[in-house]
Specification:
rod-shaped, OB fold (Dihydrolipoamide Acetyltransferase, E2P), alpha+beta, five-stranded mixed β-barrel, 2 domains
Amino acid sequence: MMKNILRTFFLLAFCITMTTACEKGYYGENEDGKTETPTENKGDNDKGNDDAGKGDSDGKDNEDGEKGGNDSGDTDNGGTGTDTGTDGGDTGDNGNEDNNEDGDGDEIFTVAQFINYNMTGQRWVRGYIVGACTKSINNADFNPPFKNPQAILLADSPTEKSKGKVISIGLPSGSSARKALNLVDNPQNYGKRIAIFGERATYLGITGIKKPDGWKFE
């Protein structure tokens, strides 16, 4: 009798032990026969994976941000240098154009330039002595012998006879210019090339110089 009681006791103890072990270590099987992971632990694992992924993403963003910042800085510096050089070049070109148009006191202009340029002050002009005149350009004389010592006419061509392509040079009475340049007393000057210096003005109804301050035959 006693032996049966002890056997029953050991069987109960064994069953209790096995039941406890099964509750703690076994969570059932899914349809594929694989052991399922506890829901609580799975959530913790997913959260851990999310945090890890977030960390990787943040690191990549920082790396990209640093790379982008460096590229931007290099581009800005290069652009600034180029613009400065371009601005300097545009300024030099404008200065040269202004000088060519205005000239200076030593530049010698052709008759056509002297007529067409809007210039002021004293200038040099070069041309051929092609005639004489008095009072008005309508009295221009292009053929010798000449009778009017009051003015001479200059042109770019030694054979010019058009009133619209000549300038007038005044020879005031008693002046050294009249003595040296008028064609009545100096017929040999006809057809010679000469440079005359004086103030640009309107004389005899056309562009010219009323009183020469200097001249030189060429």
